[in-house]
Amino acid sequence: MNLPMCLLAATGAHVLTMSPVDLVIVVLYFALVLGIGLYLKRFASTGEDFFMAGREMTAWIAGLSFISANLGSLETMGYAAATYQYGILVGHAYWIAAIPAILFLALVMLPFYYICRTHSVPGYLKLRYGEAARSLSAISFAVMTILMSGINMYSMAVIMKVILGWNIHFSIWVSSLTVAIYVMAGGLRSAIFNEVLQFFLIWLGSLIVPILGLIEAGGWKGMVERIAANFPGQDFTHMWRTTGSFADNPMGIHWTGIVFGWGLAISFGYWCTDFLIIQRVMAARDLRSAQLGTVIGGFFKMMVPLIVILPGLLGRAVLPFTLVSEPEAIATGAHSYNEVLPLMIARYCGPGLLGLGVTALIAGFMSGMAGNVSAFATVWTYDIYRPLIRKTASDAHYVTMGRWCTILSVFVSIATAYLVMFFSSIIVYAQVIFVIFVVPMFGTVLLGMLWKRATPAAGFWGLLAGMVVSFLLFLWVKLDPSAVRYVAFSPEAKDMADNIYRAMWTLVANVVVTVAVSLVTRPKPQKELVGLVYGLTEIPSHGHLPVFQRPGFWAAVVGAGFVALNLIFW
Amino acid sequence: MPGEGHRISIWFFIGALLGVYGLLILAAGIWDLFYPSGLPQAMGHLHAAIWWGAFLLVLGAIYCWKFWPNGGRGR
């Protein structure tokens, strides 16, 4: 969804007006996150401290940070808008496109990341496949991270302008320099601690909207009845019922796309191999804490629809006017889908609560930005600078490099944000870039972990093949839009469905090439794979622990909740 | 564990911020009760700022008490 550009084009007047108490709440937030960063500077003197937060995080801190880094405001506002437009179908992003992958990460993949003591996901590829695969993944991750950071920064500034009337340059510089200072000072520990704080603010600032909305609508049942009365003949409140045919739902998608494209390729690619997210749980103090933290993160991810999907649905039920598509909003001056979350905040939040709601939005942006910056600093220093530029230097030198890299990455992100301002089409391609770079990683990492026969050459060529196929499929549909009937199996498929099916083909290409090249090239000796591959790695057992302390038990609880929610909202 | 020894716990920072926010929001809600702003606000009769502010204040106080640096209840 091209949220910021649409918002910028849609309206001249801002949606929310803040009182002095609201401003005090926002200023206090900025002061505290800076204070935490500067306070933690004294605890970030070694590389392990700065890049891995000393590997001492508890399960709760690692888990809340894990999910907070994912809970960006651009995403929450975008999905709330999409929910208003498409209905509860969008909730798949939080359930099937998240929970199975998060639990798989916790129980299957995390032990390998953790046991080999790598600093990053590209670092695992170096140990498993060699330098070529590591360099390709590190460089593509670095490029993607900076680009995403710039896009998020610009998007935040545009949204702040639209909903609060703030100057775009002021928003970009104040928020990005705040993030730069606290990450540069305290490293990953500072980023993680602030993400935990931001987690509380995001939830406590957002939860008031669905609570008051449900009271006004007369509970879930009342809300469903109001939506049915306001928009007769359309189904906005069922997740799977309309996915039997491409033509039966507004997204133009079939359940196979939701399960295999969204739920497998995109979801597993993101949750199991995107270092930005995984870095948080790799900083846990032991493997059990890392696994439990991931499961805790999964639980809260499953609950996010409360503060994102529900407000979008409530907008359908209680707003006295109908939100319209962006072109129509521009033409008529009406409010667009994209404004549903700020409109709902404005509807229920008076002085004080409004400041908390706005702080929640800002916290969401800053947690995502800090995630990008801290992950970039680690990958740049350990996977690009050290192996390719300066192989031997002191630990202190690499920490200094990490600090400078943090500030440099923020400035590059700011430059990217300004670039996006002039070439807005870059935002449209953000999801395409994500599919190209992230999805192939999953097949390469998974085969590396589970199959001893996967060879160093296959690691590199499989990764490259996935990226190339993804790009070529995108180019094919771009040059000939009718080709979408081959890529996404239906001419009805919309952009989102096209991305989802392309992700599926990307993963297929990646896996096929990795397997094929493995079968004709020489594998690594088994002794070099100890601690990296299933069958050659001793996974610590939790069997001696009481059942309530085992990650597997809590993963089963979250898994049961996931199944129940899908059945309830079928 | 972060928060043990010489380092102040992140939970204390969270408690402090929530406590201050709760106080500010509660005060704004009480002010609005006696001097209504007149702005159109759905469900305004529920005075959400009062009970949500009070909830944040209590939550913040519990975290501050439990994770107070050097001697909190949680050590």
Give a verbal description of the structure.
The complex is a heterodimer of chains A (570) and B (75). Chain A has helices at residues 3-10, 20-40, 47-52, 59-68, 73-86, 99-115, 121-128, 131-164, 168-206, 208-217, 219-230, 255-273, 275-282, 287-303, 309-318, 326-332, 340-348, 353-389, 395-422, 425-428, 430-450, 456-479, 484-487, 495-520, 551-568. Chain A is mostly helical and 570 residues long. Chain A has a single domain, classed as Sodium/glucose cotransporter. Mean pLDDT of chain A is 85; it is low at 1-11. By secondary structure, chain B is mainly alpha-helical. Chain B has a domain at 10-36 and 43-66. In chain B, 59% of the residues lie in helices and 0% in strands. Chain B has 2 helices and no strands. Chain B has helices spanning 10-34, 48-66. Chain B starts with 9 loop residues before the first helix and ends in a 9-residue tail after the last helix.
